[in-house]
Amino acid sequence: MLYAQVHLTLPAWVHDFVDASKSYEGDEAKVRLSIELSARNVDSVTGGPFGAVVFDGNDRIAAVGVNRVVPHSCSVAHAEMMAYMLAQQRLQRFRLNEDGSHFTLATSSQPCCQCYGATVWAGVDTLLIGARASDVEELTTFDEGPLPTDWIGELERRGIAVRRDILRDDARKVLRHYGEIGATY
User: Fold this and answer.
1) Which of 4, 32, 43, 81 has the greatest count of CB atoms below 10 A from its CB?
2) What is the pTM of this model?
3) What is the C-alpha separation between 101 and 99, in angstroms, rounded?
4) Strands 161-163 and 61-66, how do they pair?
5) Per residue in 150-171, pLDDT tens?
6) What is the 3-class SS of 66-124, one letter each residue?
7) What count of Cα atoms within 13 Å lies in the side-chain half-sphere of residue 124?
């Protein structure tokens, strides 16, 4: 028999950890939450060192995601992908900003090639990034895959503003810790 459904979940700790009623004003507050999610995911042994949050135009959380690739045996269960899928399901639309509203993705690390591709289509207007892909590859064993040479320009041409190196040192600390403990989750 072929499987007819996919079931992906966030760790149980997310519900107590995240205050969905809070407003996260400013780029640093948004990225800080994504970095805190990435650190908690490592410390809780529930996935890799990546966190992402989709925010609506009122600076409130639409959805969060953490890396769940190993626990779910699913290569698409990256933090950004989880956040996008959960926001899309919550709002019941595959393109988040299709109604003209504004959405931001804050991520602890630069999206890999898979998450970059999803960002093109997910319907976000702003992408906020902590660590760079070079940081991920330097401090862990992850391969972030190929991106267009002018990946930022490609996103900006599609109406997605990109701001990076937000709390980069904090994001690097999480990656470094993960790499030093030799984790594979």
Assistant:
1) 81
2) 0.97
3) 6
4) unpaired
5) 999 999 999 999 999 999 999 9
6) ECCHHHHCCCCCCHHHHHHHHHHHHHCCCCCCCCCCCCEEEEEECCCHHHHHHHHHHCC
7) 31
